[in-house]
Amino acid sequence: MKILAIETSCDETGIAIVETTDTGISVLSDVLLSQALKHAEYGGVYPTLAKREHSKNIGPLVEEALEKAGCASLTGAPAVCKETLDEICQLLEREPESFAYLTNLVAQYPKPNIDAIAVTRGPGLEPALWVGVNFAKALALAWDIPLIPVNHLEGHVATALATEENEHLTILQPTLPSLILLISGGHTELVLMKEWLSYERIGTTRDDAVGEAFDKAARLMGIPYPGGTEVSRRAAQAREENLEQPFTLPRPMLHDESCDFSFSGLKTAVRNLIESLGTLSETQKKQIARELEDAITETLTEKVRRAIDTYAIQSVVVGGGVSANSEIKRSLTQLTDECGISLHVATPRLATDNGLMIALAATLNPTPQKDISATGTLPLY
Ligand code: KG4
Ligand code: ZN
């Protein structure tokens, strides 16, 4: 079965095509266009810009993914009749750019060798999600194939569990009960998986997400959005250069018995510290970056440690863009080694948003649905 997957939940347009076989999942193509640089001047993702960019880029990216996967057939009868084209026109009336591209794609070329379309229906920025959902609906209609809705968070879980062997991907089932830590620009969640693919939230952030804490602190230090990777790079330099650690930031919510998090106080503490220091030297930026990364790492690790004890956890799965952070990974590896349980983390390339994660999640749960709507606050459970 060949699945074309579409991801547009935030500021990355990702398209991937996979083929599922008895031996595993083959990745036929995986294309990604990041808008991060365009959002940098706003200091964060600007929803209207995200929607416009997805709308402009989704068609060419789908075409590129089809070509790379060898699925585009350029000869034969066009895929759609006049009535279907009218229906597509209605679906995409609010997205003229993607509509123009799509009509060209389906009115000129025959149906490609694809069996289903998977699309992120949430959570994420709703205007951005709608671009992907409407485009996916239109393609499914034009090619008369099923549509599979995907939860973006399950995509992060799927990539964390994906392993590569003989050029095929397989999704490992972790030993249960498993603890899922989702850390991204929009989420900080602790989720209990007692049974395979059944989720129960046990903790969340009461304010900012952990990626947001990295990005906002980065901005205060004059590092453009998304600053997580840059903060982490400077923190690593502070460790390598053995710089003193003159600053102390809070380890939020450790006094609290729950599995919840709170990162807005940390951001305020960074702001106060920077205001008290005036213009920052490069050394001070590295020192603050290290202290921030240590505060976040210790907080996440301690909450995970408590959840492991409370729920007799047998494996830990870490997903989301922030799971690309090597210090957090090092600390969680140490913890899970001490506890004698396994740790599953996505490779850095697959940790941040991409189309392949949506294709992988679709293979876990390939239930088609006729009508899909985008839901910005869609939970995993
Ligand atoms: O999962 P993701 O790509 O998008 C959302 O679904 O939110 O996560 C993006 C977040 C950003 O906040 C980015 O700064 C953060 O992941 N991030 C990192 C690192 N790489 C990405 N944060 C800390 N260290 C990193 N190495
Ligand atoms: Zn994400």
The tally of helices reads: 13
Q: Tell me, rounded to a whole number, the average pLDDT.
A: 94
Helix and strand content put the structural class at alpha/beta
Distance between the termini: 27 Å
Biggest beta-sheet profile: 5 strands, mixed
Number of strands: 12
Computed over alpha carbons, the radius of gyration is: 22 Å
- Tell me the strand percentage band: 15-25%
The parts where pLDDT drops under 50 for at least 5 residues are none
Helix percentage? 40-55%
What is the molecular shape? globular
Order of helices and strands: EEEHHHHEHEHEEEEEHHHHEHEHH
- Tell me the strand order in the biggest sheet: 3-2-1-4-5
Bound molecules: 5'-O-[(R)-(carboxyoxy)(hydroxy)phosphoryl]adenosine, zinc ion
Explain what this protein looks like in three dimensions.
46% of the residues lie in helices and 19% in strands. The chain has 13 helices and twelve strands. Strands 3-2-1-4-5 form a five-stranded mixed sheet, sandwiched between helices. A hairpin with a 2-residue loop joins β2 and β3 (24-34). The longest helix is centred in the last third of the chain and has 30 residues, at 282-311. The chain is globular and about 70 Å long. It starts with a strand and ends in a 17-residue tail after the last helix. Bound molecules: 5'-O-[(R)-(carboxyoxy)(hydroxy)phosphoryl]adenosine and zinc ion.
